[in-house]
Amino acid sequence: MHKTAIEQLQQRLTPPQKSHHPIPPKTIQQKFHSELSFASLILGIFGLILPLFSPLAIIFGIAGLMQIQREHLEGKNFAILGIILGFVGIIIILVAIIFSINFLQDYLFRLGSLDTLVGNAYKN
Predict the structure, then answer these.
(1) Is 98 helix (H, G, I), strand (E, B) or coil?
(2) Where would I find the beta strands (DSSP E) of 2-107?
(3) Crossing angle of helices 53-71 and 35-47, rounded to 10°
(4) Is there a contact between 50 and 21 (Cβ–Cβ < 8 Å)?
(5) Residue 1 in 3-state DSSP?
(6) CB proximity list for 86: less than 8 A, separation 6 or greater
(7) In this model, does residue 122 exceed pLDDT 80?
(8) Of 33, 35, 119, 51, whose CA–CA distance to 88 is shortest?
(9) Collapsing DSSP states into helix, strand and coil, what is residue 74?
(10) pTM of full prediction above 0.70
(11) Which of 3, 78, 101, 124 lies in disulfide reach of 37, CB 3.0 to 4.6 Å?
(12) What is the pLDDT of residues 40-64, one digit of tens each?
């Protein structure tokens, strides 16, 4: 089973076999998406409907960006979109609150002051 000196010399002098591919194959390294950035996107979408999810979308988006930077993952666009949707959700809620306050002020002005409404309820 031992190779002779001639066989060892022939093996060293023989050029390596060329592969069929002109470009040498690279090691395949899979990059996964960040779960936090995906959660941020989902929470941002839900935050457009329910106000509780908007701040969570922002928090998860920032955490997702930090995880992407630290672990070299993909999903940066998910995190950024989740943060943007979180801020849009907060702005929608603030606008709704401002309009509802304005509506209540107009409603009370038409019916009289709050004292008038409360006073009528307690009169016997």
Answers:
(1) helix
(2) none
(3) 160
(4) no
(5) coil
(6) 40, 43, 44, 47, 53, 54, 55, 56, 57, 58, 61
(7) no
(8) 51
(9) strand
(10) no
(11) 78
(12) 999 999 999 998 899 999 999 999 9
Pair of tokens at residue 107: 């409603």
From 27, 35, 23, 121, select the one nearest 78 (Cα to Cα).
Answer: 35
What span, in angstroms and rounded, lies between the C-alpha atoms of 81 and 45?
10
Q: Which residue has the tokens 């609150």?
A: 97
CA distances from 8 to 1, 26, 32 (A): 12, 30, 46
**pLDDT confidence of residue 119:** 63
Q: How far apart are CA 80 and CA 61, in angstroms?
A: 7
CA distances for 120 relative to 46, 92, 104, angstroms? 42, 36, 19
State the Cα–Cα distance between residues 2 and 38, nearest whole angstrom.
59
How is residue 78 written in tokens? 């998910």
Nearest one of 35, 83, 77 to 57, comparing CA atoms: 83
Comparison of pLDDT for 40 and 119, the residue scoring more:
40
- 38 Cβ partners below 8 Å, 6+ apart? 64, 75, 78
Residues in the chain, overall count: 124
